[in-house]
UniProtKB/TrEMBL annotation:
Residues 13-320 form the FAD/NAD(P)-binding domain. Its cofactor is FAD. It comes from Psychrobacter fozii. Belongs to the FAD-dependent oxidoreductase family. This is Pyridine nucleotide-disulfide oxidoreductase. The keyword Flavoprotein applies. It comes from the Bacteria. Keywords: FAD, Flavoprotein. InterPro entries: FAD-bd_OxRdtase (IPR050260), FAD/NAD-bd_sf (IPR036188), FAD/NAD-binding_dom (IPR023753). Gene3D superfamilies: FAD/NAD(P)-binding domain.
Length: 406
């Protein structure tokens, strides 16, 4: 056994984060080594669930408990993993390869137990968290990036039909809007752009998506910016917003009559917390995440890997579920010292989960670029994005179901 492998065996593997990425790494390692020590550190209880289901679950009347496939305790026992749940990593000492931990199980932080654990290999799988612009105060606004917050929102919405404003019409915001509508709620979807998915798709495509969203009865406010959210006397929320000026005019027009709603959901993008990447000294960007070497998923710091929402490859964040299994398999092989051909990143198919309109994208789409129409009819739109060499770098297919066209 090499000295490096001996250290991994002695100090074990530590994984920070118990989302899909962290559990995939555990599955991949255990498929090849049943006994090497693994410690899973997570700020929550470590329950296993499929996060993409959160944008579809309210209309299906599924609670947070319904979505949990296995509790953290049960999953850890089954995988022979030491679970440190409700625990924060406060520092990483890469010289001694130790982590400093603090338990969140104490009401008085002054009396919280601190501890250190050693690692032979460290996997950062802590995900990304929602961005809250200043106009969206966290104490008044929901997000559905985690099952705990989803569960709290689901309980509120279960009491009857309510008016929900969603800020941000990317994929998640657009999916949630349809889910809430199907559950019987009134929905207003607000975005800076004139149509949903405008940051990733061309105008010809997004115009169709906007039409489909509106045809369902969703109130879509495109080209508007939320300026303030306040709680009013009856417990409802007042959402102030204003129209954005044209590209040639840097000023904004006068504010419009505010919306009065029961809830506001933020779907305004994700960012990666810089605390652990900074402590570990890994190359990092708050917007895109931790930089990794694509074939191995190693970071710039020895013995530290990254996977999932918190990492990026070639400057592009990796925030889709489909590649996680292959990424985890690569990390497992690399940690265990097995020969492997290296991870080859292939952009996954992107599929909007809305029923009102079918949107599928392969490759790496971008809103601007040389998009060429291949097929265009009332029922279907197919476009290719060509790069500078006139090669296809992305393909977009939009289909309108018969029920919507009618």
């Amino acid at each position: 056994m090499s000295a490096e492998n001996s250290e991994v065996l002695n100090n074990g593997i530590v994984i920070i984060g118990a989302g899909l990425a962290g559990w995939h790494v555990i599955d991949a390692i255990r498929a090849k080594d049943k006994d090497i020590p693994i410690t899973l550190v997570t700020a929550d209880n470590g329950d296993r669930y499929h996060k993409p289901m959160l944008t579809m679950a309210i209309s299906q009347k599924k609670s947070a408990a319904d979505l949990v496939r296995a509790t953290g305790v049960d999953a850890a026992e089954a995988a022979n993993v030491k679970l440190l749940a409700n625990t924060q990593v406060t520092d990483v000492d890469t010289t001694t390869q130790q982590l400093q931990l603090v338990s969140a199980q104490r009401s008085d932080p002054a009396n919280t137990d601190y501890a250190t654990i050693s690692y032979g290999k460290l996997v950062l799988a802590m995900g990304a968290h929602p961005i809250f612009p200043k106009s969206l105060p966290e104490d008044l606004v929901w997000h559905v990036n985690h099952i705990e917050r989803f569960g709290q929102l689901q309980e509120k919405l279960a009491t009857g039909s309510q008016h929900v404003a969603i800020v941000g019409a990317g994929m998640v915001g657009t999916e949630i809007a349809e889910d809430l509508l199907k559950a019987g709620h009134q929905v207003t979807l607000i975005d800076l752009n004139d149509a949903p998915l405008s940051q990733m798709l061309p105008t010809k495509a997004t115009a169709r998506i906007a039409q489909a969203v509106k045809s369902q009865g969703i109130n879509f406010l495109g080209g508007y910016q939320v300026s303030a959210i306040t709680r009013i006397s009856d417990g409802k929320l007042q959402v102030s917003y204003e129209a954005l000026a044209s590209a040639t005019d840097s000023t904004t027009v006068e504010p419009i009559e505010p919306l009065i709603v029961d809830h506001v959901i933020a779907s305004t993008g994700l960012t990666v917390d810089d605390k652990l990447p900074a402590a570990a000294g890994v190359e990092f960007n708050r917007r895109t995440g931790i930089v990794v070497d694509a074939p191995t998923l190693r970071t710039s710091t020895a013995n530290i890997y990254a996977i999932g929402d918190c990492m990026s490859i070639d400057g592009v964040p990796c925030r889709y579920v489909a590649p996680l299994r292959a990424q985890a398999a690569t990390i497992a092989d690399d940690i265990l010292g097995h020969e492997h051909s290296g991870y080859e990143h292939k952009p996954p198919m992107i599929r909007l989960k809305n029923k009102a309109i079918s949107v599928m994208v392969t490759g790496v789409p971008q809103a601007t670029g040389n998009w060429q129409v291949k097929t265009e009819s009332d029922e279907e739109l197919v476009m290719d994005l060509l790069n500078d060499s006139d090669e296809v770098s992305a393909t977009l297919t939009i289909k309108l179901p018969t029920i919507v066209k009618a």
